[in-house]
Write a structure and sequence with these properties.
Layout: H1 2-12, H2 17-21, H3 26-52, H4 56-83, H5 106-130, H6 134-162
Helix pairs in contact: 3-4, 3-5, 4-6, 5-6
């Protein structure tokens, strides 16, 4: 689908930010804002979790996730500034704490991340479906596929390995 993307790029050549605002819908602007706002929150939460994680492999996973989120944040901010969409309030740059509550076990942190990723997948899907601008739709598609990949890896290579995934009851047909 290179032709629609190239047409979109041609339409944007030489346009001011104000002129580019008319190229996206209010819904797309809202989706960009809402997803960036949520990404800020996820970044702060992930940084807190990284402070509490004990398992070194899990720390690497958390750090990898933080890098992906930061990259997404940069892309979203750049896109929003390009289209003149106001940015949400940015959280603190880094979150450190010396408080060590016992509830923050690696399993607890994994469960929060796993549920968070699982529950955010439909957000990217809806943003993709509702987007009418090729460039914005491509962005949401890239984020959705990346989130699916992370979810799959977290599920397969860590959750199953540590036996931290919820075990559904086995189906046993009657008779």
């Amino acid at each position: 689908m290179k032709i629609p993307k190239q047409i979109q790029q041609i339409k944007e050549i030489g346009k001011s930010t104000k002129e580019k605002q008319s190229l996206i819908s209010a819904g797309e602007a809202w989706q960009l804002w809402a997803i960036l706002s949520e990404r800020y929150s996820v970044l702060a939460t992930s940084q807190v979790f990284l402070n509490y994680a004990k398992d070194n492999d899990f720390k690497l996973i958390l750090d990898f996730g933080i890098k992906i989120i930061k990259k997404e944040i940069t892309t979203l901010e750049k896109t929003m500034l390009d289209y003149g969409v106001p940015l949400p309030e940015r959280p603190a740059v880094d979150v450190n704490t010396a408080f060590q509550p016992e509830i923050f076990t690696d399993k607890f942190i994994f469960e929060r991340l796993y549920i968070g990723i699982r529950d955010f997948l439909p957000t990217f899907q809806i943003a993709y479906i509702q987007s009418g601008t090729e460039k914005i739709r491509d962005l949401f598609q890239k984020f959705l596929l990346s989130e699916i990949d992370i979810y799959d890896k977290l599920f397969t290579y860590y959750g199953k390995l540590k036996n931290w995934l919820p075990e559904p009851p086995r189906y046993q047909p009657l008779g």
